[in-house]
Amino acid sequence: NSEVSVFEVNIRFIGGLLAAYYLSGQEVFKIKAVQLAGKLLPAFNTPTGIPWAMVNLKSGVGRNWGWASAGSSILAEFGTLHMEFVHLSYLTGDPVYYNKVMHIRKLLQKMDRPNGLYPNYLNPRTGRWGQHHTSVGGLGDSFYEYLLKAWLMSDKMDTEARKMYDDAIEAIEKHLIRKSNGGLTFIGEWKNGHLERKMGHLTCFAGGMFALGADGSRDDKAGHYLQLGAEIAHTCHESYDRTTLKLGPEAFKFDGGVEAVAVRQNEKYYILRPEVIETYWYMWRFTHDPKYRQWGWEAAQAIDKYCRVSGGFSGVKDVYSSSPTYDDVQQSFFLAETLK
């Protein structure tokens, strides 16, 4: 009798169980994935079919986060169900899961998008966008990742997903990607009609995504997107290199004389996040430039030096401090993603 995040349960538990099933062939993992997915289905009982952020596993009652714009659901949450739900239908022969996520996609395709960008907030009652805030980092990130991966996982047959991805990143490049005075390419955030010149650690996954999506891109722009991935990787490496601990902050600015550096105290922490290292990994795989292995090794050494504690690994509160304090948390994504 408790509430869970639909998105988190899907990516961590259902995704984990499906992966375990594919790797082991043991039915128990498939059975548990299906049971759990059944518990999430009531979250889709909204006037639009856009799911609530949270659902009570016992009662099936759903609701949204109190802080989200005007009762909205979040793009990165309802947009990060597709891969697992398609596989649930594939494995069970029951189309209900596939239909739920395809309905979301169809709804998004019909909607007008400001400047071609997807806002992070969508009201599940009215079917209207919330405030016009667009981000490739938190609240938006994995929606774009899943469009590309839906196309890849379909053996490139799902051309609708590829078109949505291509359209989205063209708008992102036009409206969100800029070069700083110091020559660093960064991805800002669109907020209420203007671009905030700030990039989050979470946004750094996009370097790897651009590289992954280069093959099959429109107008034969593969070289362009590989180069863009390399530029994002370089910027994100600078955010690590410009700290005392050689670990990147949660968010960093590109204002005036300050570039790739966190300004506010509440953005100087590092919580064992994988995104920068993930982009190095993709860039290494696609280019085999040895610098990406070197950068990955720098990060591994810094994590070992500054985050290792007797009971595992901890986040640190200030990457610019020579005597950092621990936050006393080992995030689940440290094992699931960063080390992987």
UniProtKB/TrEMBL annotation:
This protein's pathway: Protein modification; protein glycosylation
Active site: 8, 141, 250, 275
Cysteines joined through disulfide linkages: 204-236
GO CC terms of this entry: endoplasmic reticulum; extracellular exosome; Golgi membrane
Membrane topology: Single-pass type II membrane protein
Major localization listed first in the record, in broad terms: Golgi
GO BP term (any one): carbohydrate metabolic process
Keyword Amino-acid biosynthesis: no
Gene3D superfamilies: 1.50.10.10
Enzyme class at the top of the EC tree: hydrolase
Reactions catalysed, as given in the entry: N(4)-(alpha-D-Man-(1->2)-alpha-D-Man-(1->2)-alpha-D-Man-(1->3)-[alpha-D-Man-(1->3)-[alpha-D-Man-(1->2)-alpha-D-Man-(1->6)]-alpha-D-Man-(1->6)]-beta-D-Man-(1->4)-beta-D-GlcNAc-(1->4)-beta-D-GlcNAc)-L-asparaginyl-[protein] (N-glucan mannose isomer 8A1,2,3B1,3) + 3 H2O = N(4)-(alpha-D-Man-(1->3)-[alpha-D-Man-(1->3)-[alpha-D-Man-(1->6)]-alpha-D-Man-(1->6)]-beta-D-Man-(1->4)-beta-D-GlcNAc-(1->4)-beta-D-GlcNAc)-L-asparaginyl-[protein] (N-glucan mannose isomer 5A1,2) + 3 beta-D-mannose; N(4)-(alpha-D-Man-(1->2)-alpha-D-Man-(1->2)-alpha-D-Man-(1->3)-[alpha-D-Man-(1->2)-alpha-D-Man-(1->3)-[alpha-D-Man-(1->2)-alpha-D-Man-(1->6)]-alpha-D-Man-(1->6)]-beta-D-Man-(1->4)-beta-D-GlcNAc-(1->4)-beta-D-GlcNAc)-L-asparaginyl-[protein] (N-glucan mannose isomer 9A1,2,3B1,2,3) + 4 H2O = N(4)-(alpha-D-Man-(1->3)-[alpha-D-Man-(1->3)-[alpha-D-Man-(1->6)]-alpha-D-Man-(1->6)]-beta-D-Man-(1->4)-beta-D-GlcNAc-(1->4)-beta-D-GlcNAc)-L-asparaginyl-[protein] (N-glucan mannose isomer 5A1,2) + 4 beta-D-mannose
Enzyme Commission number(s) from the entry: 3.2.1.-
Cross-referenced InterPro entries: 6hp_glycosidase-like_sf, Glyco_hydro_47, Glycosyl_Hydrolase_47, Seven-hairpin_glycosidases
Gene Ontology MF, one: mannosyl-oligosaccharide 1,2-alpha-mannosidase activity
Alphabetically ordered keywords of this record: Calcium, Disulfide bond, Glycoprotein, Glycosidase, Golgi apparatus, Hydrolase, Membrane, Metal-binding, Signal-anchor, Transmembrane, Transmembrane helix
Cofactor: Ca(2+)
Subcellular location: Golgi apparatus membrane
Family label: Belongs to the glycosyl hydrolase 47 family.
Name of the featured protein: alpha-1,2-Mannosidase
Organism the protein comes from: Merops nubicus
